[in-house]
């Protein structure tokens, strides 16, 4: 039972991570006018340059577009 719970939790996290990476790729594509593959390469390069996980780079990009300043 514990193994199933842990696996479910891991899959849930992976789905959320994948979703935010897909959002960030779309944002990069729209802003830079590049292909999906090139957008992913840009995200990976930024991740490596900053020494942070790809999902973190993606999260920041998605938040920068969706956050409404007040």
Give the SSE layout.
Layout: H1 2-32, H2 36-50, H3 54-66
Helix pairs in contact: 1-2, 1-3, 2-3
Descriptive overview:
The protein has 70 residues and is an all-alpha fold. It is 84% helix and 0% strand. The chain has 3 helices and no strands. α1 crosses α3. It is elongated and about 45 Å long. It starts with a helix and ends with a helix. The model has no long low-confidence stretch (mean pLDDT 88).
> What gap, in angstroms, lies between the N and C termini?
46 Å
Computed structural class: mainly alpha
* Helical stretch tally: 3
| SSE run | HHH
Q: What portion of residues is helical?
A: over 70%
User: Percent of residues in beta strands?
Assistant: under 5%
Give the assembly state of these chains: single chain
What is the radius of gyration? 14 Å
**Major β-sheet annotation:** none
Query: How many DSSP E strands?
Result: 0
Q: Tell me, what's the shape?
A: elongated
- Mean pLDDT, nearest integer? 88
Question: Low-confidence runs (pLDDT<50, min 5 residues)?
Answer: none
Features:
single chain, elongated, 3 helices, mainly alpha, 70 residues
Summarize the model shown:
The protein contains three helices and no strands.
